[in-house]
Amino acid sequence: MRRSLAEFHLKDEHEEEDIGTSSPYLHSAGSQASSTSLASSTPHNGMHDGAQIGMAPRFTDSLNMLPRNFRGSTSSLNTSLSTSRNLGSVAVSSSSTTSLPPGRPRPSLQISRTHILPRRSVDERRRVRKPAPVSDLLFEPDVAKKLGRWILGIAVVEFDIDEGPIISGIYPPLETLPDEEENIAFSAFPDSLQFDQGSQGHSFRFRDMLTPGSQTPVERRPETSDGYIYGFAHFTQRRDATSKRGYQQVSVVILTQHQYPALFSSIASILGPMFQCHGLPMLESACHTIAGWSDPTPGTTLELGFLGSAIHVEIPHSIDTQQLAATSSFNEKYDPRLHILASAAPFQPPPILLFEACLPNLWSIWECLVLCEPILVFGSSPAQTSQAIWWLRDLLRPIPVAGDLRPYFTMQDGDHAFLVNKLPPKPGLLLGVTNPFFEKSCAHWPHVLSLGRTVPTPTGNASPALGATTGPSPGWKTKTHKRYISKDRAILKQLELACRGNDGDRLAASLALRRHFCSRTTQIITPLARYLNSLIPTPDEVKRARGRMSTDTLRLKPFSTANFMAALKTHGSTLPFKSSSKRTEFYERWLRSPAFGAWLVQQENIVKTILHESYRKESVT
């Protein structure tokens, strides 16, 4: 049964402080957490199940010290478990999906039991999706098809004392594999918490494991363009006297095939509080609303209604197109609070706060990105790491991403053994982590970026701030990189002043920094674009191809490194390289990187498409 949106509004007692947008990122993985990151709205009354006074339970601290291949899967939960608490008061009798098949047997691991471990032993747990009420959530095939243009579904994940993080349901019902469900369940929750009550938003990405043709028509889900699924989570923790742990912990996750972090982070921040207040009916309303949106046509600007809010969003022409505020298609002055550049990173909180401890090193970090160097990004929360990873990815445009990127990566991820091992890290890998385990397992990585700024260590009898975590101290550490290009000291001065200013100053400085590096990325490929123009077939060559009735030669001529380097020496570059030898060394390295290969293929396809289209038109006339 659908209900009017007018019935749904957040009452005062349900309003919650959004940690993801209010935290000024003062703390980092290796620093003492600032008290400003807390969102406690009720007195500390003590908690059940041995929890410490005034501290949020670290629900996955022990679980996350177990690599995925040492965990068993979990068993089915009782259907009625916390249904009224987490999924509203809808009376139902049916389950959301069929229980998933049990996973492969896994070896056990002897560990000491604490009050924060699930009650079942590692050996006897078997992960399935928990049955949940969906009888009132009716999705006609045409509505589900329209919804699939934008998202795959919305998942609700809760923490159960016996099972750990477990999916309560995905709406509309979505066919998923067991490994995909584990990725969703564990990635939806932070490794550890730095607030007693409140909410926080973050994002993650995992591999699409369903191969084309492996699904029946009834189960078919929209295909992904890059082989990955993106999750945008809104996690909430509240005190709950009825819970054995003293807390209710729920995450609402938007699952999508689109790489639009600014858009879906905004959507999740609207849906999360509404779901916490009204339960299941909000999922139905959200999905029907999204199904009514116009197509996400590249290059369009849309006004999208969502649960009482109006969202103005610009869809990029392609995923590698730079979306800049100055060139956006909004018919008014750009305001990041009102306008969304879909593929950009979220602008709130101001991103420069993430990098405050390493402002002078930003130019080295950018060079490592361009050269496809792997970077481990360490933060104190998934909100930090996911915003930072999307920000770094944004600075690469218009150069395509040639490596993997994980905004928030856990030890339970199905790709853990593939991405984190004793071998050298894969080129271009950007890994956002919060678990201190990674500091040791990734000790051989060449570059580590730890987010935030250093807070002075308390002296004397002072107590550390709530939420302090372990890990590398804030800053940039590199074992191999030496900078090729001079930094912009005027921009650096603006950033340093902004960090001591107000929120408006920090946002303006963040946008200026983004423009600066987007300009530098474009300057990298300017000499290459100039050289590629000499490889495009001439009009005479195109005419001869038409005479032979052949399109085989309608493509770029082979790229010659020697010829390009000669052209570079002649024409130079607008980038302020420290010396001509540094310029030569930089381009020699970049031409060997996967990023150059991906960019060259992209340019060849563009030229080939244009030439073939011209050939087709000439043939018709």
UniProtKB/TrEMBL annotation:
<dbReference type="GO" id="GO:0005085">
    <property type="term" value="F:guanyl-nucleotide exchange factor activity"/>
</dbReference>
<protein>
    <submittedName>
        <fullName>DUF1630-domain-containing protein</fullName>
    </submittedName>
</protein>
<feature type="region of interest" description="Disordered">
    <location>
        <begin position="1"/>
        <end position="54"/>
    </location>
</feature>
<feature type="region of interest" description="Disordered">
    <location>
        <begin position="459"/>
        <end position="479"/>
    </location>
</feature>
<feature type="region of interest" description="Disordered">
    <location>
        <begin position="73"/>
        <end position="109"/>
    </location>
</feature>
<feature type="compositionally biased region" description="Low complexity">
    <location>
        <begin position="28"/>
        <end position="41"/>
    </location>
</feature>
<feature type="compositionally biased region" description="Low complexity">
    <location>
        <begin position="73"/>
        <end position="101"/>
    </location>
</feature>
<comment type="similarity">
    <text>Belongs to the DENND6 family.</text>
</comment>
<feature type="compositionally biased region" description="Basic and acidic residues">
    <location>
        <begin position="1"/>
        <end position="13"/>
    </location>
</feature>
<dbReference type="GO" id="GO:0055037">
    <property type="term" value="C:recycling endosome"/>
</dbReference>
<dbReference type="InterPro" id="IPR037516">
    <property type="entry name" value="Tripartite_DENN"/>
</dbReference>
<dbReference type="InterPro" id="IPR024224">
    <property type="entry name" value="DENND6"/>
</dbReference>
<feature type="domain" description="UDENN">
    <location>
        <begin position="152"/>
        <end position="601"/>
    </location>
</feature>
